[in-house]
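Subject: for your reference before the review

Hello V.,

The reviewers asked for a structural picture of the protein, and I figured it would be easier to keep everything in one thread rather than splitting it across files. Below is the amino acid sequence we used in the manuscript, unchanged from the supplementary table.
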Amino acid sequence: VQLQASGGGLVQAGGSLRLSCAVSGSPVDSSSMGWYRQFPGRLREWIATITAGGSTTYVDAVKGRFTISRDNAKNTVFLQLRSLKPEDTAIYYCYRYVGDLWGQGTQVTVSS
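And here is what came back from the structure prediction:
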């Protein structure tokens, strides 16, 4: 099973981005999936999870601004980022709970 993350970039404060995590080798809904982010010099921090059953949870810092979802037909998990702030600047990673698998990071940079 492999994860391929994409969608990061440079955006102005208040803008939006959609991150994608394409899963190959297994159905995307066969495992809970998550998104994490890592600030410079710090450990990765959990942002959001979507369970195999479709339930979602979020860290308080992103509630109401970020949305995790998936498209089973595309075998992809998404993270919609809205109302971005400079403090959201980080490398974002997708994660598959079954197998403890990480995608490569995608950089999100929010300018003020």
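For the response letter, the relevant points are probably these. Residues 91 and 107 are 4 Å apart (CA to CA). The chain has a mean pLDDT of 97.

Happy to draft the paragraph if you're swamped.

O.
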